[in-house]
Design goal:
alpha/beta, Spore Coat Polysaccharide Biosynthesis Protein SpsA, Chain A, 2 domains, binds uridine 5'-triphosphate
Amino acid sequence: MSHVRKAVIPAAGLGTRFLPATKAIPKEMLPIVDRPAIQYVIEEAVSAGIEDILVITAPSKKPLEDHFDRNFELEALLESRGKTAGLDQVKAIASMAKMHFTRQGQPLGLGHAIGMARCYVGDEPFAVLLPDDILTDNGELLSRMISTQASTGSVVVAAGHYPLEDVISYGVIDPISIADDVIDVASIVEKPALEDATSNYGLAPGRYVFPPSIFDAIDATTPGVGGEIQITDAIAAMIASTGVRAVLNHNNRYDAGQKLDWLRATVEIALGHDELGPGFRELLTDIVAKHGIGAAGTPSTEIA
Ligand code: UTP
């Protein structure tokens, strides 16, 4: 069994990149194919051995709590109509993990949101998963990160190799050494200017495994980029104590908080869906031909 049982999911952000959809609906509840984005993240955590999850929310995020709670009225209705497949699905959501919710109060930054979990976490290592980042790797990356944390005692972050113009939208990692897809981190800087980026290694997807000492580092962190308490600054402060390791991700990753990448997630996940995949592939082939995309066909609009 994994030595990391608990995970924290910070979901108190405003989701301004996805307006107007997110005016009244939390971005974590926007569906990707047949389930809300956050359900993918919970399923990933559970696949990596997580049993107990705290979601950091905001006043507008009540649907998140409802989604992971029982809905007796719906269950009774599905049962009375003999819709057993639907009934099993809605019941399963409520029993995936032990779920807890707390509110951040004010969106003072990701570091501040994670800091809210101190009492919940207690004195054990824990995982943090940002619900914008959708992975479809059945917990493979998070499992490697948990193993790395167990063997090193370090702060463990996830990293990818990105073009220079993209990497500066993340924390940028300067490596001491790289072995077996694990970077020993020399320094880390949140969203540097292009000329200050020291490598192509960026702090994304948003997955972390922390020792409990991260909470003291968060408490000591003053507002940084954007006037927010940045988790990257607290992580950078841990380099001198526990050390920081970055585990490289090679799998697909979607930023579901961003419109275009949400569309990519929807299309690719639909193509791989057991039930919908074959029908969707046919539909997409027709659409591609109709709109003359790539070499597949001529746009029907050009005929006139
Ligand atoms: P983002 O930078 O994506 O911010 O936060 P956001 O507000 O959610 O979205 P945009 O940029 O306005 O579209 C990264 C993660 O940190 C959480 C967010 O919910 C998201 O999961 N977060 C951020 C908090 O929980 N609290 C904060 O104060 C800030």
